[in-house]
Amino acid sequence: MRIPVLFIGVVFLSGCGGGGPALYPVKGKVVLKNGAPVKGGQIELESEGKVAQRFNASGVIKDDGSFELETQGKKGAVQGKHRVVMIPPPGNSDLPINQQPKRLFHKKYLSYATGNLSTEVKPGNDNQITLTLDPDGP
After folding, report:
1. 13: pLDDT confidence band, cut at 50, 70 and 90?
2. pLDDT digits (tens, 9 = 90+) for 57-94
3. Which residues of 100-128 are buried (b: 16+ CB within 10 A; e: fewer)?
4. Selecting from 2.40.50, 1.20.1250, 2.60.40, 2.20.25, what CATH number does the domain 19-90+98-125 have?
5. DSSP string of 7-63, one letter each residue
6. Can you give the residue ranges of every domain in the chain?
7. Which of 39, 73, 75, 117 has the CB geometry, 3.0–4.6 Å to 84, for a possible disulfide?
8. CB under 8 Å to 44, separation ≥6 — which residues?
């Protein structure tokens, strides 16, 4: 009777580790080509590589264009190359369509496929990223 109980305990404990990928701090700024900060919204990075080993990192963009990335609720991003996508701030359902806030950056940055943005996270504590975006347009 003790062996099955011991086995069940081992199974439960094996899933409770603090494992996961190593994360490295990443801070940065998002600006338009004219130097103005992109205010609000989010930035998201998708690590490149095998699908099963990809980790997304994201951060909220502050009014000064700055952000800090997190992965799975922990500060930082995994090492390696990443594709980048931008997520604009949500609209305001209380306002008519013609009074909604205007998106500051070009719509191509809404997709990994069309945005053509990438960056690399390196081991260490000095990952500073500056992304310069085209302004909104056709």
Report:
1. very low
2. 999 999 999 999 999 999 999 999 999 999 998 877 78
3. eeebbbbeebeebeebebebebeeeeebe
4. 2.60.40
5. HHHHHHHHT----S--EE-EEEEEEETTSPBPPSSEEEEEE-S-GGG--EEEEEPPT
6. 19-90+98-125
7. 117
8. 56, 57, 58, 84, 85, 86, 87
